Amino acid sequence: MARWPIIFLQLSSIILLSTSCAYNKLKNGKNLQAIQLTSEVIQPVIPSNKQSVKYKAEIDVLTKHFTGIVVLKQTDEKTAHIVFVTELGMRMFDFSVVSDSVKADFVFEALNKPKFVAMLTQSFREMLLINAIGKTGELKENKKGNYYWIKDHNSSIAIPKPTTTFAEKAQVFTGNKKHSSTKYQTNYSLLNYKTKGLVKLKINLIKIEETK
Asked: What is the pTM (predicted TM-score) of this model?
């Protein structure tokens, strides 16, 4: 039994080493030019012009599993909302987005725990590229290709330069450790987000196509 803590520490060291190497390879890539990530460079996930989009959602954190619908909607020129409702229509949370910040306007009482809410708002901020769109970063190059490198408070964001204006992947590093990664498919029709570390959180969103 005494060997298991040692094995765990060894595995943890390998994981930390690999994530720090990934960070260094991205940070030390060749700078090509400074660039602002406008909507013409990377399209935002939340639609503009007061339109809305709906996603089937699965949220997993610790032993909790939530399913429902996430609605993303710009409500005015400066504000957007992220609303999560159950299949029965019960509102679980409503987050407002202003500039690059996400704050909780409403959270269902059973979920309204400060650490949980902070984790959710941060995760949606990262997954929906609110931490990157509109900011100025660097277009960099390494052996794997070109990518955007953006500083965000105490974090760094790496977004491989996509073949279109829709992002295909994003990684967020806190310090030199990977904090989260998001994969995007087919013009944001599918989003897969997950965090690293002891407390893991996963969010899967599948776009609901509106019928005419």
From this structure: 0.89
